[in-house]
Amino acid sequence: MFWLDWFFPIEMLVVGLSGGVATGKSTVSSVFRAHGVPIIDADLVARQVVVPGTSTYKSLRKEFGDEYFDDEHGGVLRRDKLGKLIFNNPEKRKVLNGITHPAIRWEMLKQFLTLLITGTKYIVFDTPLLFESGYDKWIGTTIVVWCDFEKEVDRMMKRDNISRADAESRIHAQMDIEEKKKRATIVLDNNGNIDELREKVKEVITKLDKSWKPYIFRVVFGLLLGVIPYYFFKYTRS
């Protein structure tokens, strides 16, 4: 993302979290949240920027038409219907991304800056498209949670009440989990039960809490906050 290219120390503060469609990413995120670690949830942000009344919502409605909005329930976006449209239509998907992605990035930036000011040690950036979108390039620590393909299919069928064919289709639409595992800094195996996964996440949190990198970021950021305003006022008054 262009607005992060110049912000080099960010990798010391942000931890990227990703995984497959139904591999346990939400569980991992919930454990971080329970330990007081702030989360920037890309899926949640994507929903927030398209609520009725926002500029992104208006642009989508103008582009795709009223049939993709439920006027009987406040005019909310029919995400499932729009999802089916763009799934096998690259051109429509490109149009959708062109409308929503700038708004999503801006909202995530605002959340990041807000958390930065509050003094949090590190932030977890939760997104299924961590690697596909290139976010991993500016994040120092990346976590991928995975499970075997059959387990993922079974979990997705039960969770979303869909057919095996639909589950497999959604899984294959994303980057292969093996490729994500290769790129990740930390890999969490979720082939066991939920309690085992939670314990693994707690171990990761313990390691992250011991890291000294966020403190370097704080020093750099503190110096910038002090030096930049000083020279700004110095030269604007001279």
Automatic annotation (TrEMBL):
Signal peptide boundaries: 1-18
InterPro entries the record matches: Depp_CoAkinase, P-loop_NTPase
Domain of life: Eukaryota
Membrane-spanning ranges: 215-233
PROSITE patterns noted in UniProt: DPCK
Keyword Transmembrane helix (UniProt): yes
Gene3D superfamilies: P-loop containing nucleotide triphosphate hydrolases
UniProt cross-references to SUPFAM superfamilies, sorted A to Z: P-loop containing nucleoside triphosphate hydrolases
Gene Ontology MF, one: dephospho-CoA kinase activity
Pfam family membership, one: CoaE
GO terms, biological process: coenzyme A biosynthetic process
Presence of the UniProt keyword Signal in the record: yes
Keywords: ATP-binding, Membrane, Nucleotide-binding, Signal, Transmembrane, Transmembrane helix
PANTHER family the UniProt entry points to: BIFUNCTIONAL COENZYME A SYNTHASE-RELATED (PTHR10695:SF46), DEPHOSPHO-COA KINASE-RELATED (PTHR10695)
Protein name, entry field: Dephospho-CoA kinase
Organism, scientific name: Caenorhabditis tropicalis
